[in-house]
TrEMBL record:
Keywords: Signal. This is Spore coat protein. It holds the Pfam family Peptidase_M73. Residues 1-27 form the signal peptide. It comes from Brevibacillus fluminis.
């Protein structure tokens, strides 16, 4: 008998044995074992910090962005860190505003209305003003120089539009929680287009909401015995090979 045949016979015998145990009535001696399983979800918690590690205040910019002139730009450097237990795959930036957050310089409610020359008192929409503001977002390790997105605030306000992924390549283009909470630097620059004309004098978007959206990695098929907690905490952007 070849080795192959012996092996297949052994398997057949084992299968037959199992079927005996499986069916029929119980004998006198019985035993039941039970086991429990915990099924606990991890957490995704993105935090926005100053470069020194302090939590950022409500306003993204510490400067008051007012009295700006065409051609001005202002830049903010901050970092995104993982405060949860699951590794974060991607982080996208979104900026939104509403018509209600806009005050036209030609509107008597405008702070600068009284100082505005009559010829510049021209009404326009929030979108027209937001179209004059260029948003540039950079990611990358140490000093974020890699352009992740460039467009106008008006474009970024559209529902389906976000910047590209901000996670840097140093730890697999992700923001793992293990072995330590990763932190990636981000740079945002707002520029008032130097082509903005007089109708935008005194115009103000009183609230621009910046939102950072963190996403999880794709689901993984685990085999029992694997360290799931560790894997999900330290996961990188590339899918787990199978
Ligand atoms: Ca990523
Ligand atoms: Ca990273
Ligand atoms: Ca105006």
């Amino acid at each position: 008998m070849s080795i192959k045949a012996k092996v297949s016979m052994a398997i057949l015998a084992a299968a037959a044995g199992l079927s005996l145990v499986g069916g029929g009535t119980y004998a006198s001696f019985t035993d039941t074992e039970s086991a429990q399983a915990e099924f606990a979800a991890g957490t995704i918690d993105l935090q926005v910090k100053k470069l020194n590690g302090d939590t950022l205040a409500t306003n993204l910019f510490a400067s008051k962005l007012s009295n700006l002139k065409p051609g001005d730009s202002v830049e903010k450097l901050f970092k995104i860190t993982n405060g949860g237990t699951l590794s974060i795959r991607d982080v996208f930036l979104k900026a939104t505003y509403t018509e209600g957050d806009f005050v036209d310089g030609a509107d008597p409610r405008s702070e600068t209305f009284a100082k505005l020359d009559t010829k510049a008192k021209i009404k326009n929409t929030a979108d027209e003003f937001a179209d004059q503001i260029v948003v540039e977002v950079f990611g990358g390790d140490i000093y974020p120089y890699k352009s992740v997105w460039k467009g106008t605030l008006k474009e970024l306000n559209q529902d389906a539009v976000t910047t590209g992924d901000l996670t840097d390549p140093t730890i697999g283009h992700s923001l793992p929680a293990l072995p330590w909470a990763d932190a990636d630097p981000v740079r945002v620059r707002l520029t008032f287009k130097d082509t903005a004309d007089n109708k935008f004098q005194g115009d103000a978007l009183q609230k621009i909401n910046f939102q950072l959206i963190a996403t999880q990695h794709l689901g993984t098929n685990f085999v029992d015995g694997e360290n799931i907690e560790w894997f999900n905490g330290s996961q990188l952007d590339a899918p787990k090979p199978r």
